[in-house]
Amino acid sequence: MPFAAITYDIKAGYEKEISEIFGNFRRVGSPVVQDESGGETARILSTAVFIRDDTMVRVIEYEGDLDAIARHMATQPGVREVEEKLAPYLSRPRATDTVEGFVATFRRSLLTCMAQMSVRDAA
């Protein structure tokens, strides 16, 4: 399963406040991402958030179409709430208040995966 990692430029020294935001995170309604006809296009398997100094990284393990996952995340109330609550702690604002803005920000923030290994890949 592939991983995606997106970065957030944050103000240093607010780890506790940011931790509290994610501690109260409302999970997505379903890990399954569907297209307009109801067919499954992707699935979110797991997420994790890491922080150090002025950088925060959200890691997403997924199956399927990453753009579909970004669009799905853009419409989720919990994700929108986190983005709104993070705004005061960002050193670089994120235009995530629309689906288009969220997807564009997601793409700009995406780190390039250099290597990925899993015991699931071993035969």
Key traits:
123 residues, Alpha-Beta Plaits, 4-stranded antiparallel sheet, 4 helices
- As residue ranges, the low-confidence spans are none
- Span from first to last CA? 15 Å
The succession of helices and strands, N to C, reads EHEEEHHH
* Count of separate structural domains: 1
Q: Write the CATH architecture name.
A: 2-Layer Sandwich
CATH superfamily: Dimeric alpha+beta barrel
Determine the mean pLDDT: 91
Overall 3D shape? globular
How helix-rich are the residues, as a percent range?
25-40%
Number of helices: 4
Instruction: Using the coordinates shown, work out and report the CATH topology.
Output: Alpha-Beta Plaits
Rg over CA atoms: 15 Å
> What is the strand content?
25-35%
Domain SchA/CurD-like: 1-119
Organism: Streptomyces smyrnaeus
Pfam families: SchA_CurD
InterPro entries: SchA_CurD-like (IPR007575)
Overview of the structural elements:
Residues 1-119 form the SchA/CurD-like domain. This is SchA/CurD. The protein has 123 residues and is α+β, with helices and mostly antiparallel strands. The protein has one domain (3-113): Alpha-Beta Plaits. Helices cover 32% and strands 27% of the residues. The protein is built from four helices and four strands; from the N terminus they run βαβββααα. The chain has helices spanning 15-23, 66-74, 77-86, 99-109, and strands at 3-9, 32-34, 40-52, 55-64. The chain has a four-stranded antiparallel β-sheet with strand order 1-4-3-2. The longest helix is centred in the C-terminal third of the chain and has 11 residues, at 99-109. It starts with a strand and ends in a 14-residue tail after the last helix. The model has no long low-confidence stretch (mean pLDDT 91).
